[in-house]
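PROTEIN DESIGN WORKSHEET
SECTION A - STRUCTURE
LENGTH: 286
TOKENS:
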């Protein structure tokens, strides 16, 4: 007879530490085996959305797909479904494992994930320099070249990233990638969106921590990211870049429905307000 308790067959739960975009630690897979015969077993040792795959594992495989082929293989070889993993870094900035590899030009990781069942899209094809395929998609779906990828990264930027591993590419691959870059440049609207410039001296006043509650993690940190943009992340962490669209007003990392506005008095930032559908949240600078 079946019951709601775990079966007598061993159930495996993988556990790893979480991570955020840009700040990604080295994490290894670990296992614990539970069964009815194990008197110490407690249901709270299972992921709270079990049998969904643990968020921490999904987070890791997407994060490591930006740069760490060996770790990606260690995760995906044992569970090929992770080749299709997708993560929301914040506010709906969705990114798949193959999308992560694509926008940084890691052809080796892209090709590995494809071999394990990852689902390619126009951004994947752009990174791989698939000139004919990308051109055909644009002709079949007008203006698809304007669609942004993860973090607001454009189709043209993906195509250019595909040339970063030039030393490991064949002459034909290089030629196709260069043809695609030229073609996308010629369209005039496949590149990144234009935002207002933020002067270097302006950035400093926005940096710092902002709190909206008393909880340990109830807040945001505004930092300079690797591209020297101000970015908004969880308290103490790096996060997505902020693109200026008005007076002290920014768009979060290409997410069209989320704005961040700073409240300023006498050129001193006092707070920030995040506005998204059905939520307005103000956090005071501390």
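SECTION B - SEQUENCE
RESIDUE ASSIGNMENT:
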């Amino acid at each position: 007879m079946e019951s709601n308790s775990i079966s007598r067959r061993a159930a495996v739960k993988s556990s790893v530490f979480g991570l955020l975009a840009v700040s990604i630690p080295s994490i290894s897979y670990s296992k614990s085996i539970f069964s009815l015969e194990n008197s110490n077993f407690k249901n709270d040792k299972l992921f709270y959305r079990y049998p969904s795959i643990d968020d921490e594992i999904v987070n890791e495989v997407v994060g490591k797909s930006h740069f760490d082929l060996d770790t990606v293989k260690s995760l995906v070889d044992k569970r090929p479904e992770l080749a299709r993993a997708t993560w929301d870094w914040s506010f709906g900035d969705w990114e798949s494992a193959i999308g992560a590899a694509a926008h940084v030009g890691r052809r080796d990781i892209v090709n590995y994930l494809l071999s394990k069942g990852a689902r390619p899209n126009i951004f994947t094809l752009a990174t791989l320099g698939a000139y004919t395929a990308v051109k055909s998609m644009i002709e079949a779906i007008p203006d698809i070249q304007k669609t942004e990828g993860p973090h607001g990264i454009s189709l043209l930027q993906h195509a250019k990233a595909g040339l970063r591993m030039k030393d490991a590419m064949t002459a034909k691959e290089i030629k196709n990638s260069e043809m695609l870059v030229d073609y996308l440049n010629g369209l005039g609207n496949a590149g990144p969106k234009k935002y207002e410039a933020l002067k270097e001296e302006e950035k400093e006043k926005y940096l710092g921590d902002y709190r909206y509650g008393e909880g340990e993690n109830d807040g945001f940190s505004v930092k300079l990211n690797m591209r020297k943009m101000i970015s908004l992340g969880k308290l103490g962490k790096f996060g997505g870049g902020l693109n200026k669209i008005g007076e002290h007003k920014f768009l979060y990392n290409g997410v069209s429905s989320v704005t961040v506005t700073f409240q300023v008095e006498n050129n001193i930032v006092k707070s920030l307000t995040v506005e998204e559908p059905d939520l307005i949240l103000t956090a005071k600078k501390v």
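SECTION C - NOTES
The chain has nine helices and twelve strands.
The chain has a mean pLDDT of 88.
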